[in-house]
Design brief:
mainly beta, disordered C terminus, single chain
Amino acid sequence: MHLSVALFILAAISICKGRLENNCNVFPKDKYIEVGSDIDIVCQTSCVKGKIFWTLNNAPVDERLSNTINSSHTVLSLRKFTHHSATLQCHSAVNQQVLGGTNIRTYSKPSNISCILHNKDRDEGIPDLFTCNWEHQINPSLKVNYTVLRSTRSNSSKKKICTSHRTECTSHLVEISENNSITVRAETAHWTADSDPREFDPLHIWKIVPPKSLNVETFSDRVLVKWNRASSGAPGHCQVNYSKAANEQTTVVLSETLKANQHGEKTIDIAKFESCSNYSFSVRCALNKAPWSDWSHKKTVLTQLNKSHVKLRLWRKVAEPEKNGVRRVHAMWTEIPSTCKGTFTYAVKSTPYKEHTMGINCTLRGKLTCDVDVSRDAHRINFTVFHDESLFVEDSVYVPAIGESLPQVTDIQTSTLEGVILVSWKAPIQSVSCYMVDWTHDGNQYYWKKTKYTNATLSDLLDKKPYNITVTPLFENKTGHGTQALHICSRFGGPGNVTIHVQTNDKSALVSWNVTSQEACSGVVVNYTVFYGEPPLNDTLDGSKQDFSLKDLIPDTYYSVYVKATALTGTTESIVTSFKTNRFGPGLITAVSVVGSIIIVLVLSLGLCCTVQWQKFRAKPVPNPRLASAVTLWPTAGRQEGMFQAFSNPTESLCDRVYTEEAQRKASSPIDCYGNPASDQTDDYVDSATTPIIDEKHEDPVNPVETPRLSSPDDSTALLSAENSPYRSQASVESPASKCSKQFKRVPLKQTMYVTLDMLEQHGAR
């Protein structure tokens, strides 16, 4: 059939054009077809010779889909075409010339039609609204008009119910008494498509109104829900939905089946609920095979306390005994919800196993822990709860004696996974009823749970906190010893803060660092990475290293460096630190320091030597002329020759010998010029320097030694007062002794004459 259509199109084109032998083109143009249908495309090839080929969206089409009718026409047959939009082109096989092309677009018809009968504003009675919904895959920018058509078995003609531009349409109906067939028509400027007809039974699409007058009654062991069902007269079913008001995402749905003509008040008992908790309830109903009604308005109530729901989970922690054997037992239990009505009183009593021993009581109101002191013996901690002064529930736990032989678990293993601690252990040889696992992060707030297995999962932990975990086996009437696992982190954080220090040289720098953490559960550093220089360089070191030497640096240049610490749980970077290399190396500085030190030592040594020599020079004694044994006048110009001859002994220093007055007195008495002893004089002072000195060894007289005078008489008179000077008897006139000395031959003397300039010094100087 498709081929005959193509031939008809060719004949029409031939008549209209009249000169096909000169034209090349593709027909039909811009065709819209329903998705999944078939289509034939004709290519007119009068303008070329030889074979042609087709492309679909620039991809070659299988040659088997193309059929050549004559030398000037070729037909392409496409079956079940599903492309949303496609471009078909006809090409010459000789020169690849495009002979013509066309665009093929597809559309779909509406599908998945659903309709309901319902009442306006939830009014009871016969439904008066008819609403249909459907699906249609189209281009969103395409404008489509929809029409809902209705037909019945008695009247096959389609009657328009409503129109819409959306995929939903609602109309008012007076009565529907038999099955209806619904068709949805979609229309655009280019195409029209009708959906497949859908038949509905009125009772199967009747959505009744939700139940009203919902009532909820609570008891200690159950909850009773009541509601009124709409009087439809048809069989159906209802559902009750309830959930805790604090967690509405977790809901429980209970179903109740209703019989035909069963209407009025309906009830349902709910036994699974938590005591003293707020619950929300709602109900919905439906006819058999009909859609559910909407949920009724919610009803929220507070459940009552159920004695069987109370789980005290009594447990205790026993501290290390004191010197006298007394132990502090920390009893703890699960809180009865504070929303429960009434007053609750908790009583803890420690009962020893020894006879005639009084126990210790602890009565609390509103608290969840109690500390009691017990002796070294075995005890049982009894726990009692009173509700409004009446006994409500009780429990007990065993405390073993010190040194009591009881089994305990071994080989505790722990691991951490995403904030959860997994604990496992090895059971003792004895038969165990269950295990108690308790954990704490600060020694004050405890958490505990009971398990029958040799493993447990601890959740809801504080982030990056170390926990102490204890596992204790429980027996029928006793409690074993606990085994601890200490400092197990809920999760490890990144490494601590990295602080770096830099020591510089001219061509190198030593970078050292340390890691400090304010968290107890910091990750262990796996490696460090040092970043430095521009462009940045980096070196990675093992986690045990905490220093690194930067080499081949440029002297007197600024650099920056920082260190990144990497752990399995994260990374931490130090702040960027800038430093400047030294201008000179440590060798030059050391050499300059050594040379400078040597120069300083030499200068100090030379100065010290000069100072010592000067002090020695100044410290040499100089004879006092007043105490000298021989004094003479300063020779005149004619006598200076003899004086200098007397001082010309090269073997002796001017400072070699000093003769004091006392030493002179021990010598022989002075003699006159003729060898006679000099007589005592009272009026004139005898110049002893003019007398010959007797050598004590040979007793030979020697020439007298003259003492030089001052340079001029004026000097002597200016410095010395004639009245006070001990040398007042000396004068410029030659004394007889001096004259006498001229008669003797001058011979060199071993003694040396000393001259002092401190001639004014006297004992008791003024």
